[in-house]
Amino acid sequence: MSYYFTILSPTDVPLFNIAFGTSKSGGDGIARFRFPDTAQYMNQFIIHSSLDMVEEAQWMNGNMYLKHIDTYPPASAYISAFLTPSGARFLLLHQPPHAAGPNANAGGGGGGGGIGGSSSILGGSFAAGSSAARASASSIAANPTSPQTEEAVRQFMAEVYENYVKTVMNPFYRQGMEIRSAVFRSRVTAAGRKWL
Amino acid sequence: MSSTTKASRIGEELWKTRVDKVNAELVTLTYGTIVAQLCQDYDGNYQEVNKQLEKMGYNIGMRLIEDFLAKSNIGRCANFRETADMISKVGFRIFLNIAPTVTNWTSDNNQFSLVFDENPLADFVELPDDGRAQDELWFSNILCGVLRGALEMVQMQIEAHFVSDVLRGDDATEMRVSLVRYIEDEMPPEEE
Amino acid sequence: MTVFSLIIINKAGGLIYQREFQPGLRKLSTNDYLVLAGTFHGVHAITRTITPKLPLLTPTATASTPTSASSNLASPSGTSTPIPPTTTTTTTTTTTTTTTTTSVAATTYTYPIPGVPATGLESLETDKFRLTCFQTLTGTKFLLFTDPHMANIEVVMKKIYEFYADFVMKNPFYQLEMPVRCEAFDRNLNGWLRGRT
Fold first, then answer.
1. A170–B35 CB contact, under 8 Å
2. Please, which residues bridge with residue A17 across strands?
3. In this structure, are residues A97 and A106 in contact, taking their beta carbons and an 8 Å threshold?
């Protein structure tokens, strides 16, 4: 599973971006998206295109966590959203390791057998993806819409939110400014490692 | 150390019974905003910001000492060591609810360090990453001024400065306080 | 329980506050109040200076008393006398020199009440009123004119000091050492004194 997390200001200015991979089920925490490295903008493209859905969903109930709100099937990218009361949007794109396609990354998803570890960032290892996917069927990685995943993302969002509040309370941070704090980045990474 | 425990007891008692409490974030954000604004006003001249903070603290200290004395009802300290205990265990306790450790005395008992395990003024703070603030700005410098102003009012001329700060990545936040002299001519000689 | 009036004198001897709470004393002109403040300030300093100092004679007393006396100095005494330099230096030097040297030097002394430094004039009484003086450690003097039979003046004094700290010193627009013109101070003081009677 690979993740792309972004924070958008109420006026749609990107404040913070981070990409990371799962650390569960033997994952090494490195993001392996299905696009080549040269096309990383695809993540931003997909995640920003879900903003309309967010704006629609935010009035449906009073929750800050909007759960899974959008899917982009061509890249099997799933988007979860979280709203802060001030209107900042936390968006998380998750992309499970492919179950059947040619770019399946068994090493990251299953952790079984001796095939892991050799895969490049481009995801070039051709492995028996189906068995790996079955092995981790109940894990967060394989099933982006399961209740377990929703819960894990909720925990992640809550932890990031807590740290976000502390970061914007920094007197040297001005509203609407890009978040450059290394401390915040490391806290988000830690939250990702802990929950996703 | 009996004077230390006595001071701790006084501090605790006052904190519980005589002090109006105020939300900590309010204090932290107010102070943080002041520092950030100063940094902006002085265009990143952090030496000047340190100086202004110290001056603000000095003016606060000269007023705050009366409140400290009126509340605590304690008399004159016998020596500088006792003064240090009073600052840490009573002063910081009733105004910030912390009690920095008094340590690193020089052999002549005229210099000590206050080591802050916690610092409510600096919660949430990360110094600007302009490559200079980390080396030049003493974020909590107002405290040095407060001590200087307060002690001057009770006839002690001191010098106080920070030597390290966790905000800068140091292991501890430490302030060095040196007694310059007791001000003996407390009242100017006057001719009626 | 009559409190006639209150005068506050800054550390330089200037009158910074004068209020009458209940009639009973004759009024003075503003100028006379200023003179009263200045005169009292001088008399206070003189009375403190003439407080007798009793030399400590026996070597054993010299050995033990300076330390115990200096630790007792912290007891609530409401005085502004700086620690006598002689005491301070002696206390620090005795750690290295012998006790006999100290007693021969005869620089050690005690005040009539051991451990309490000289405070100067504390109260002045006539059959019509009593003047109580409280000097803070910062040198400000509070003079309270009361009925001579009034008890618990310290309580009133302490409360006045607290009001002063709260409504005068914490008023950001009050300039230190300048005349006190703080409406909130007057209001609270008046209200509190009226509530007591």
1. no
2. A6
3. yes
Architecture label for domain B3-182: 2-Layer Sandwich (3.30)
- Label residue A102 exposed, middle or buried (CB < 10 Å: 0-12, 13-18, 19+): exposed
What is the pTM (predicted TM-score) of this model?
A: 0.76
> What is the per-residue pLDDT across B19-56, written as a single tens digit (0 to 9) for each?
889 999 999 999 999 999 999 999 999 999 999 999 99
Find chains touching chain A: ≥3 CB pairs under 8 Å.
B
Strand intervals (E) in A1-159: 2-8, 14-21, 65-72, 77-83, 89-95
Domains of chain C, each with CATH number or no CATH: 3-55+111-195 (3.30.450.70)
Q: Could you state, in order of their start, the residue ranges of all structural domains in chain B?
A: 3-182
In whole angstroms, what is the distance from residue A169 CA to residue B125 CA?
Answer: 8
Calpha distance B125→B136 (Å, rounded): 15
CATH number corresponding to A2-195 = 3.30.450.70
Q: Please check whether residue A170 touches B, CB under 8 A.
A: yes
Q: Give the pLDDT confidence of C102-126 residue by residue, as tens digits.
A: 333 445 677 776 666 778 888 999 9
Of residues B70, B109, B184, nearest to C161 (C-beta):
B70
* Separation of alpha carbons B80 and C1, rounded Å: 41
- Compute the distance between CA of residue A76 and CA of residue C154 in angstroms, rounded to an integer: 80
> Is the Cβ–Cβ distance between B101 and B92 less than 8 Å?
no
Using a CB-CB cut-off of 8 Å, the residues of chain B touching C76 are: 73-75
Q: In what order do the strands lie in the sheet with C123-125?
A: C15-20, C3-9, C141-146, C130-135, C123-125
Say yes or no: A183 contacts chain B, CB-CB below 8 A.
Answer: yes
Quick check: ipTM above 0.90? no
